[in-house]
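Reading a protein record of the kind used here takes little practice once its layout is understood. The fold follows as a row of integers, each naming the local backbone shape at the matching residue. With these conventions in mind, the following record can be read line by line:

_____
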Amino acid sequence: MTYDRFRNYFAILLGVWTGFIHIGQFTFFPMESIRFYAWHLMLGLTFVFLYKPSAQNGSKKWLVLDWFLIALSLSVGISVIANYDNFIVIMQNSRPDFFYEIMGIIIALLVLEAARRAIGWILPLISLTTVFYALFGGDLPGLLGHRGYSVMRVVLTIFSDQGVYGTPIAVSASNIYLFLLFAAFLNVLGADRIFQNIAIAFTGKKRGGPAKMAVLASCMFGTISGSVVANVMSTGSFTIPLMKRMGYAKRFAGAVESVASTGGQIMPPIMGAAAFVLSDIAGVPYAIVCLAALLPALMYYVTLFKMVDLESVKYNLKGLPPEDIPQLKTELKRSFKLSVPLGVLLFTLLVLKMTPMMSVIYSLLALTVCGIIAKDNRLSISKFLQGFQMAGRTLPQVVAACACSGIVTAMFAITGLGLKFSNFIVQLGGNSILLSLILAMLICIILGMGLPTTAAYIICATAIAPALVKIGIAPLPAHLFLLYFASISAITPPVAVASYAAAGIAGENAMKIGLTAVKLGIAGFALPFTFVLNSDYLHFGFDFLTLSTWLSSFTICYSAAIIIQGYTEQKITTFEQLLYAIVIITAIHSSYILSAAGWILFALLFWGGKYIRSKTSAAHIG
């Protein structure tokens, strides 16, 4: 048996066992929380060292090191699981214990190495900086100084429910893995291709159809995948070449896919992994987070969709030929096996108010039944096993980011660094909400340039969220603000991971794509300020406030796209652009009267201008 085949069999067995442990935790055999987190971290680290080998070029000489690290991961995890009662006593009492001190050092090194392999150097270096601060910060003068902590205290804090078994890994174990498993089974049943075909069927005939298809397909794919790069690579491999072939510039094609894929992290019902962490840290049920995030996410995509539409007007770009467009009826029939489980997820989560864990377990059950009875691409045993294996393959980045972030939050907790950082922002902002928000935005974007969204959000939530709450911002909008900018950093140069991924497919310079993406994704930069300063945009209910806010939001989205592109059905004047800016200023206001004035002005400008131009064109023809 070759090594690759052995690794594949091992990964399948490991994936099935991982699924068994996580589903069992919330159904048939629940276990103590820390013991469950120990299982999750142990299995996650094993997947990291299995799928992120020392030698990325396929060399076999480093395999001994990889399996040694797997053995260490299993040893530490089993020592906690098997000696759980003793571990809890030591963790709660911070009692010196040489064995667990060694285990703590080993797990810290394993987590740092796993993070380095899975997400790069930046987060491990941040973690090490906070560890050194905890060890030696007692010698620092002034505000940065603290009482000083021994190696044993630092190690035991890391090896506890404040550190690697703390909130980040708890959320990964309780919520994120099950949604990754759900997404994996959707993909095994062809969700990516079905969503793509539905997007083509809906938008292919329209002007600029390929770009609109990219927006819709990436949005749909993003609801089941929180990974920006995975979204770009899966949908972009088809949409970017198609956009180029239909006449879009390479930089624009890459930017559209980058912005559309980035939005997947903020698009309910299955937002990115960071949304689950947000729910836990902010103390807000995940269903409430989804409902609050719905309108801003739709505004993000509506603005992008309209900008793409106006780009096609600007360059007279047509839709796809009829022979390239799938039949919508056929694709909707094929999507039945996917839409039913997604419907079960929404119903159990939003109507029955079940926990996210139970909702996704029922959705997995529905998906399995629908997959078995489907007429095409049925869920066979091999695909069933492939689903567990695929979930394990997507787990390394999440586990590595969450566990390594746990080290940072642990050091923030014992040294008070997070509180000091928060106080610094409050003082620098001078209790000005706008200035504090700008500072928070810059920090999130800078951190997010080199970190996955989840890790960037966790650090920002620990260090910045208390400052925003302290100056009077409610917890949910404060945390959503940080989540948005941790997400939008994926398209912000100079290190824009979505733009770099799209650049490889588009054959264009990543910086050019990144700069174009910032223009197309302008809504992502403005929306967080909007819903913090006017919380009506996070309100969802069957009332006049919701209706008014939604009318205002789409008026604002269309106006913003028109201002940036300088077109409606043809080029508009600078004066008209200024009038559309007035529309935004009035419609965005919480006053019903001003909002209504904005709607009326928009109607006069958009439909009135359209009518006048049609009359003018008719007169010229006559």
Notes: Residues 381-415 form the longest helix (35 residues). The chain is about 75% helix and 0% strand.
